[in-house]
Amino acid sequence: MASLSSYLFSTLSKVGSIGGSGIPDFHYTIGDKIEAFAGKGIWDVHHSTRTNDAKQEATVFVLAKARGSSYTAVAQNTLKRMRTLRHPGILRYLEGAETAEAVYIATEPVTPLTQALDVDKSDELKQWGLYKIAETMRFINEDCKLIHANLSAASVFVTKAGEWKLGGLELVDSPTPATATGGSSSQQQQAYRYYTGVIPGYSARMAPELEGQKWDVVEKAKPGAVDGWYLACLVHEVYNGGLRSASQLQSQGQIPATLWALCQRLLMPDLRRRMSPSEFLQTASRQGGFLDSEFIKASIFLENIAVKEENEKAAFFSGLDALIPGFPQAFSKFKILPELLKLMEFGGGDAKVLSGIIQIGKGLDEQEYNDLVTPAIVQLFSSNDRALRFSLLEYMDSFIQAIPSAVVSKRVFPNFVTGFLDTAPAIREATVKASLAIAPKLGQKTLNSDLVKQLVRLVADPEPGIRTNALICIGKLCTAKEGVLGLDGDGVSESSHRYVICPALLQAFRDPFPPVRSASLAVSTACASKWEAPEIARRVIPCLSPLLIDGEKPVRTAALKCLNAMVSRVEAYSQTLPDTMAKKVVAPANASATVPAGQASGSAQAEAAASMAASDTWGGWAVSSLSSTFSGALSLASSSLPIGQQQPQMQQPLSTPIAAEVSGSEKSKVFASATLSKPAAAAASGTSGSGWEFNDDAWGNDDPVGKGWDDNDDEDGWNPHVLSTESSTPAAIAATAATTTSSSYTLSAGPKSGGMTMSSTQQRPLLQPTAAPAGSSMPAAFKASLKLAGSTANNTRKPATGEPGSTTTTTTTTTPRRKGLGAMKLGGGGASKNTPPSNLDDFF
Question: pTM for the full model?
Fold first, then answer.
């Protein structure tokens, strides 16, 4: 015995050493031996892989011819039957070879049933396994007219899916012996007659007719009657363990009652009354029978789904989700899942099929998911079937998290983004909803450059529901924090929000569909912190204001909430600004020094700002600001005339009528005091004034001394159209004339030479609204309401030379006549320190 063992070991060593390369026409590498099967059959079972593809697994059965001719004969019979018998229930043959040393058979990767039962003792798998074995035996007995004669736990193997596959074809043969050419019986071809002795443990389960060598009874028996006995032996081994003697078959043990009744009929000694595997399958599948279960029905339906009607498929898949949790995990993973994926790939599935795939996928680890589910789902995204794409989008959040980000970005997203452009509204809407699920798998660039822009484009979609959902999706993406959606990096960038999203929100404020307006307001409120405060003040609030009186109450409520959020944002920003943006310019000590006009205007603005800040009440700073603003406005207008063509300013206004006579010596002083001089602002700027000041009540030096004024003189107003071309610039000419009340002054010669008196009442011009000069800094409300009126004058006067008492130099500038207080002088950035208060101050 020791010498035989050493011989077998050396032979097997040679077999293992030559592997897949030394065996002719055999392309599998023999791996480790499965020790659990040792002694259970005549074969040595090894794990194996294909020579040129290590990922393709297989199982290799090896029998050394050195064991004897009988072993070689049954091994050769097995190889022949494996090549010719093909059935889903028979162990799938891959490749076989025979050499002078051994016989090799490569099959699909399987595990011996004796080993599988120790790992998974699921009743569902046992039921399904017995169903498959009985169905396979019916194929062998009735369709092939053969007898198996070796059905036992050692001849059944289990796949990764938990399905039982029939092997052990060593004794398979026809019940009718073949006849040779010469007419003699060739009984040696019936293996079950002569080679039962080589099968380990066969005597304990041998059928009575074979044990009694009743070959004529076997030949006349109904198909499958012999194998019915061996099916009962298999049931006993499955539920009660190994079979050591035939007497154990009479004990029920752990066999279920519904199954035990059938076993009794399978063990009938009389072949005519014994139940065949086909009859067993038919009886056990009846209502209330052993094989009547939802698990078996679902498994049978999946195997035959290709020939099922559409209504049958719909009914099956509607209840599949409820059945999957009760199925064995291995069976769901390797049997149901491939069938569902195959169904989806060829366009026969819908959302319910995809739901079943996703539910099974939840029980897989990451590696299994990537190997089984991910390739199929990625391929499904490239399908043009709208129903399939809609199902993928609907269940996106259930499976996308298990797919690697690199695969999503490169293979899923390019097909996913086409849904935004689909002509079917249902696809576009489903794509929008699925964007939240796929966003965490996208990179920063893809998120901002592709996804956000596609969503913003749908804000203008023809379908109002799609516009609403697009806005909601944008809002969730913009407000998503790390850990909520798990966006890569910082999520939506600041530039995308400012230049892409904000314009879309402002556009949505004017959408005719109320839910769109409400959604845009809600998104704007949630994203208030992302808006720039200047943009809020200039763009958002003006667009937001009409929605406060919207016809829909939800819109008004959302608008008010949004406005409060925006105002709070602007208020916080305003606290960071300085009190004034103007730069205060300190005037030089010498009033005659030259100061640029821009600095003089800035000084006035700074003083106005300081006055506003120092005031306790709104009235105080309003008046102070008003005076400064008027002064600044007039100064701005006065600078528009060219140098040399500007109106001289009168320093001393005539505030009361002249009642006393003036002597000849004093007359010179009077007119000398009225000599033209530059105002402070004009002197500072190096130019003369171009108009009349508000406080310019003094008479000009253009009237000849010694001549009296008549009524017509004072009635003549300032007509800008009679000015010479040198002084008729737009900034220097006052606007329209106004009516006056009260009579004019009358001047007459006094009793003394050179004297004159003034009588009648003082003339006061009325104020009428008029347009403000261009470029003025005067507030618009006051610009429109303040202007001094006067009558037009069609003639101009020049001072007479050589008249007595004339001490002023004759000027070549033609000056328009004025009346009363005189026309307004649009000049100077502010009144000089020596200028008396004007009548405008008295007015306020």
Answer: 0.58
